[in-house]
Amino acid sequence: MSTLTIERLLDTLQFFAFLAFELTALFLLISFLIGVIMDVMPAKRIQTILGSQGGRGYLSAGLLGALTPFCSCSTIPMLSGLLKARAGFGPTITFLFTSPLLNPIIIGLFWVTFGLKVTAIYFAIALVTSVIAGFVLEKMGFERHVRREVVEGGAASGCGSTTSSCGTQTSSAAPASCGTSTESSCGTGTPSSASSCGTDTGSSCGGSKPAGRWAKIWAETWKQFRKIFPLLMLGVAIGSLTYGFVPEDLIVQYAGDDNPLAIAIAAVIGVPLYIRAEAMIPLAAALELKGMGMGALMALIIGSAGASITEVILLKTLFRRPMIIAFLTVIFTMAFSAGMLFSVL
């Protein structure tokens, strides 16, 4: 085995370890925080903030995405929380697109690296395209492609309850294992054998001790993480191999100014690269010096930051195939359109 191959293998393993640790920590932390928010903030409040009435919900979602320093993968826990809260589908999808592409760190790096004009155009393209995509996908009825278990995940899984809200609705025929009492409103009644249900009926109503609430939220967070862990590691492995064994010179060769298909190629290869925008922007500056055009650079940045193989794998746990295809189509269209615009400026 040559020295170069060993170095690339070590880089791959190092990147895998770093990425696996980072995504694991982010996923657990963000999932727990979303659990806390969902426990404290009523679903109706989130629906109001990100409701689909007019353009207010879309703008709120776009700005929320711009303020959250998430990469394409760490966006998934909050996306899942928004879907469970039954927030407006269009604004939720807008958040999915803007979150990994716009945040203060990325905008600052853009400004320092490429100047104010390029930064402003990039911000406008990402925000406007995301809002339009969210609006169009909602109008086309893509909400039907959300997996049923995702939106039903927030509902109580035991005691025959049909809703997770405090005492708003209960099944008239609770299972016998849940006790004889069907009353579940806050502080007014508890099933006689609630322990067999595995849930604390008072925790969502504020009746349980804070420690118990945190433990319940953490248990749900860990349960979700165990389910997603194999898919997460598979995506990290693919992204690490691409990172370690695809040389920069090869990218430049196929995405240089002399290649008429450079922008399209850059947009396509950006997805499997899985490089966060914060890391991609300094790399883009070096690639520009090697001869890559600004159009191809923008396509590469948006493609690599906006989507990744890991994210697609994670999104499969939330959406059916048509929505996954639509997501990738929007990211590619955004990357290609931005590249074409920058190539003529």
TrEMBL record:
Low complexity: compositionally biased ranges: 185-208
Superkingdom of source: Bacteria
Pfam families hit by this protein: ArsP_1
Residue numbers spanned by region Disordered: 185-210
Compartments, record wording: Cell membrane
Membrane topology category: Multi-pass membrane protein
Key words of the record: Cell membrane, Membrane, Transmembrane, Transmembrane helix
Main location, first listed in the record: membrane
Parts of the chain that traverse the membrane: 12-38, 58-83, 95-114, 120-137, 228-246, 258-275, 296-318, 324-344
Family classification: Belongs to the UPF0718 family.
Protein known as: Permease
Originating organism: Ferrimonas pelagia
